[in-house]
């Protein structure tokens, strides 16, 4: 499990696990650290995809199915063991949603809460436009394309590191483009509550469709900042307090 999951603060007595899915090109360095910031009732797992960090020598995932199969097969025992919630940012949102739908359909398991951030609802016009967008071959054009859709992260100055980040982002975006969602066939697929977060200065996302994915409650919150609003310490603190309150309110 250590290959797939980063857990910097083990909490064997936790009542719930928060599984975090990073954005395109992201690793575990930011979200895994949340494990130190939550109280003892929540243990944080951050998903580490192949092609980065300790999995640098592994080939990148080719499609969403391979990612979902790895996550569910590796974590199934832990997910059956105790309640869990998902947090995901940007393109990682679609990975977390696919895992949630797969768990519900195949194993009858469901997160107690889905926390989605800075992404179009999967049944929206905005999502379809993003998914069908061609990816430029040139790095600078690709980065400009990512900024246009909201993914403007500060890149390292070192050229080799920069190229690696761009490569990882490109490969993760290819995985996102294999994401499939047919809402008409699923009816209302989930019953858990869904909370959507975004930055006030980020692009406008097509988000109301999240309400159609669950019979539970859906809420929307805006934080000051851009697409990377969650990396600001003040916003991070508020996010953790809100996520904790939502999970504890489930009454585990």
UniProtKB/TrEMBL annotation:
Domain named Thioesterase: which ranges?
17-244
Give the top-level enzyme category.
hydrolase
Tell me where on the tree of life, at the top rank, the source sits: Eukaryota
Q: Name one GO biological process term.
A: lipid biosynthetic process
Q: What is its EC number?
A: 3.1.2.14
Quote one Gene Ontology molecular function term: fatty acyl-[ACP] hydrolase activity
* Entry-linked InterPro entries: AB_hydrolase_fold, TEII, Thioesterase
A Pfam family the protein falls into:
Thioesterase
Enumerate the PANTHER family for this protein. S-ACYL FATTY ACID SYNTHASE THIOESTERASE, MEDIUM CHAIN, THIOESTERASE
Give the family this protein belongs to, as stated in its UniProt record: Belongs to the thioesterase family.
- Name the UniProt record assigns to this protein: oleoyl-[acyl-carrier-protein] hydrolase
Could you tell me the gene encoding this protein?
A: Sast
């Amino acid at each position: 499990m250590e290959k797939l999951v980063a857990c910097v603060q083990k909490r064997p007595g936790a009542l719930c696990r928060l599984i975090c899915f990073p954005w395109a090109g992201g690793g575990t360095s930011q979200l895994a650290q949340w494990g130190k910031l939550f109280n003892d009732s929540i243990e944080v797992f951050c998903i580490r995809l192949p092609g980065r960090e300790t999995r640098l020598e592994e080939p990148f995932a080719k499609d969403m199915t391979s990612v979902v199969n790895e996550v569910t097969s590796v974590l199934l025992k832990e997910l059956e063991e105790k309640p869990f919630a998902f947090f995901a940012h940007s393109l990682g949102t679609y990975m977390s949603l696919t895992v949630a739908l797969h768990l519900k359909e195949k194993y009858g398991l469901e997160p107690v809460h889905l926390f989605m951030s800075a992404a179009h609802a999967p049944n929206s016009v905005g999502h379809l436009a993003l998914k069908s967008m061609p990816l430029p071959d040139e790095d600078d054009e690709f980065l400009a394309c990512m900024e246009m859709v909201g993914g403007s992260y500060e890149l390292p100055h070192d050229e080799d590191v920069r190229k690696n980040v761009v490569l990882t982002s490109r490969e993760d975006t290819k995985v996102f483009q294999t994401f499939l969602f047919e809402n008409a066939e699923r009816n209302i697929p989930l019953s858990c509550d869904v909370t959507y977060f975004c930055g006030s200065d980020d692009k406008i996302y097509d988000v109301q469709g999240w309400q159609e994915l669950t019979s539970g409650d859906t809420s929307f919150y805006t934080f000051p900042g851009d697409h990377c609003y969650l990396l600001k310490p003040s916003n991070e603190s508020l996010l953790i307090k809100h996520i904790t309150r939502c999970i504890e309110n489930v009454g585990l």
